[in-house]
Amino acid sequence: MPPTSVIFPVHTSALNEQIAWLLHNGYHAISVQDILDAHYGLKSLPPKAFLLSFDDGYSSFYTRVWPLLKAWNVPALWAPVGSWVDTPAGQPVNFGGLMTPRERFATWEMVRGLSRSPLVEIGAHTWASHYGLPANPQGSREPAAANRGWDKTTGRYESDAQFIRRMTDDVQKVTAKIHEVAGKTPRAWVWPYGAASGSTLTIAKQQGYQLAFTLNDGLGNVKDLDNIPRLLIAGNPSLKAFASAVTQIQEADPVSGDACGSGLCL
């Protein structure tokens, strides 16, 4: 995925059909807590387990998705970008360089309400690192949470120490704010653009994060919570296309060995 911010809408009716298809075809909805319990040997995941995840912090999660979760009794992970939710009312959100109407994004009051639901796990999608930063003299842009920046003024790359300080400040800020609003420390770290960094992951773990979600292909495994892959559902696909994408992942990466240790994240 390119390091630019683009909204990938899925219609509410389509999401409803997708959840129905999953449940009617033998898939079992799980939560972040279920994954952690399986990781620590407290339980096994059901066959064909799946976790729904939603990024960025759109207000539509509160107004449209949450009612569906309650109707189907399906849990989900929701990971907002802190600075986008923190944007004052009436001001546009700097959506990775694209100025976007404030009402498209949730408020902290919405976050507080969602955090009280047993169906919603509040994760973190950085505080303000969901953008592409200049990463080389040629001007290429790469995900800010996973790459050292290039300063054309000084003609130098960001040092390791500078990168660690920048991302430590970011992780600490989003973690503290979510804890303040939700009353609990977030446990799930969701990489912008799916781009991971070992240095940032270490910082996140130090702040209490126990799972990290990418956009890599395949099924997740409870033995590896540092690199949980996800299937990106974008562009409002037909139900047939959705079913095909899910089935292909399941068939390409069948459960083996630990018979209840794998699951699909969408």
UniProtKB/TrEMBL annotation:
Residues 48-266 form the NodB homology domain. InterPro entries: Glyco_hydro/deAcase_b/a-brl, NODB_dom, PGA_deacetylase_PgaB, Polysacch_Deacetylase. Keywords: Hydrolase, Signal. Gene3D superfamilies: Glycoside hydrolase/deacetylase. Signal peptide: none annotated. Pfam families: Polysacc_deac_1. Its EC number is 3.5.1.-. The keyword Metal-binding does not apply. One of its GO terms (biological process) is cell adhesion involved in biofilm formation. It comes from the Bacteria. GO terms for molecular function: hydrolase activity, acting on carbon-nitrogen (but not peptide) bonds. PANTHER family: POLY-BETA-1,6-N-ACETYL-D-GLUCOSAMINE N-DEACETYLASE, PTHR34216. This is Outer membrane N-deacetylase. It comes from Klebsiella pneumoniae.
